[in-house]
Amino acid sequence: MAQLFRREKECRSMLAPVLGWVGTIGTFAVYLMMSRGRLDANSVTYAAVNAVCGLAAGVAAALYGAWPSASASLAWAAVGAYTLVVCLRRKMRPVPVNTIEYHSVAASFDYRVTHGPVVTAGSVPGAQDSRTPAPTMLEP
Fold first, then answer.
1. Rounded to an integer, what is the distance from CA 67 to the centroid of its chain?
2. How far separated are the first and last CA of the chain, in Å rounded?
3. What mean pLDDT do residues 67-92 have?
4. 8 band by pLDDT with thresholds 50, 70 and 90
5. Which phi and psi angles does 39 have, rounded to 5°?
6. Given a cut of 70, is residue 92 above it in pLDDT?
7. What is the mean pLDDT of the chain?
8. What region, left, alpha or beta, does residue 126 occupy, with left being phi > 0 and alpha being psi -120 to 50 degrees?
9. pLDDT above 50: residue 114
């Protein structure tokens, strides 16, 4: 019985460092991916990993008795959980027909297709630069 209790104590003593490192590395990794443009800050993945890793780091800090760190990590997890709920609600909500955006065909064409080639003053003799607005009749 004593050996079983000792083994349980050893497993419990390993729980805090493992949770702490998983929480720290996971939070750092998704933040790095978000800052490098690989994840959107409002994505389900970013929110879920922040919530889970913040919770892991918070539990680890609480097991160590580091209450300020536990509070900060659990607050981080709460923000991640809230963002996750918002993201999931947004995905599940049907889009009303009258709010679907209409894009005209002309708006999706390239600038050169809709406005012709860009003519600079030096490329054609006597031509006005097409990148500057032409004078209008309303100008004094």
1. 28
2. 99
3. 93
4. low
5. -130, 145
6. yes
7. 77
8. left
9. no
Q: Round to whole Å and give the CA distance between 49 and 17.
A: 18
| CA nearest neighbour of 28 among 76, 70, 97, 100 | 76
Domain assignment of residue 76, yes or no: yes
* Rounded CA separation 21/5 (Å): 25
What was the pLDDT predicted at 13? 79
Lookup: tokens for 83: 């963002």
pTM of the full structure: 0.60
Residue 116 counted as domain residue: no
Domain count, the chain: 1
Residues sharing a CB contact under 8 Å with residue 16, sequence separation 6 or more, in sequence order: 60, 63, 64
Domain that holds residue 56: 2-94
Element (H, E) at 125: none
The residue with tokens 């996750």 is: 84
d(C-alpha 69, C-alpha 28), whole Å: 16
Q: How far apart are CA 134 and CA 10, in angstroms?
A: 80
